[in-house]
Design a protein that fits this description.
- This protein is mainly alpha-helical.
- The protein is built from 17 helices and no strands.
- It is 67% helix and 0% strand.
- It is globular, with a radius of gyration of 18 Å.
- The mean pLDDT is 90.
């Protein structure tokens, strides 16, 4: 395939960098976030949609203001979602409706899985894990934008040649999706550690004390066939051909996370129980 022309991409909103420097402990953190969102109408609409989605269905009352949306979602998650929306906007806005929905569903699945793994392992900052899960699919979005239909082709290629998805990506893209994510983050001058987490994160399988290791474990979790069926529902799952039965996923995770079977069962059951919330949030993130 042809190389990626990063200069041809739509520009990243300067507000994305501003989001990264907000400290949630600041007294005016909420106002900083609201000031940013007030200059991004699409971001404002997405956050309101998320607040009214099944993922935040604590109250039947629908809301219309961004301030109410942030308070219903929660400040920390609102910041993470806003960051992912702004970073994802240049590479997802011009995808087909189906591809955009597929990849945001997958992205939110990754984020939720990362958060659950981080919580179980008592990782120092589970919110970082959730954010990097949301950013994980930027590489896939970039590939789909650059080479339309690339995701379907790479999955079929992996199945036909009995390859892992990463091996198939190297054959089709010349690099893995994590490398594409890292390259994109570097192009947008995100903090250096952001790119480092995603680049070659599959080499960190079994090293769950790192964000890269948590990403790798999260990918195993969401490959569970019944989880994918629940999240994607009537939407075609581009990763369906790579889905795994529960016993295979359990075997992988027992090695990767070094958990007791009871802990693993609880983790997988929580993920399956959350499919409706994940699907609602993913579709809200994908809405134009």
């Amino acid at each position: 395939m042809n190389p990626v022309n990063f200069d041809a991409l739509p520009p990243l909103s300067p507000r994305a960098a501003e989001l990264l420097v907000i400290k949630i402990e600041d007294d005016d953190a909420e106002q900083q976030l609201l000031n940013i969102v007030s200059n991004e109408p699409l971001l404002a609409a997405r956050l309101v949609a998320v607040a009214n989605s099944a993922a935040c269905a604590g109250s039947p009352a629908r809301i219309a203001s961004v301030r109410q949306a942030v308070r219903r979602i929660g400040m920390r998650q609102a910041m993470q979602l806003a960051t992912a929306i702004l970073f994802g906007q240049p590479v997802s806005a011009h995808l087909s409706d189906q591809a955009r929905e597929q990849l945001w569903l997958h992205s939110v699945s990754m984020a939720t899985s990362c958060r659950e793994v981080a919580r179980l392992l008592k990782y120092q900052d589970g919110s970082d894990a959730y954010l990097h899960g949301l950013l994980h699919d930027l590489g896939y979005m970039l590939a789909e934008l650059t080479w339309p239909g690339a995701l379907e082709r790479v999955c079929v290629f992996a199945l036909e040649h009995t390859l892992t998805i990463e091996e198939a990506e190297r054959e089709q893209f010349g690099r893995e999706h994590g490398e594409l994510t890292a390259m994109l983050l570097e192009h947008w001058q995100a903090p250096t550690p952001f790119a480092r987490v995603h680049r070659n994160h599959h080499q960190f399988a079994g090293r769950s004390n790192s964000l890269a290791g948590i990403l790798c474990a999260a990918e195993s979790i969401i490959s569970l066939d019944e989880f994918g069926q629940g999240v994607f529902g009537g939407t075609a799952n581009p990763f369906a051909c790579l889905a795994r039965p529960r016993d295979v996923v359990e075997s992988l995770l027992l090695r990767q996370l070094r958990l007791e079977q009871r802990q693993l069962d609880q983790l997988l059951d929580r993920m399956i129980d959350s499919v409706a919330e994940i699907a609602g949030l993913g579709r809200s993130m994908a809405a134009v």
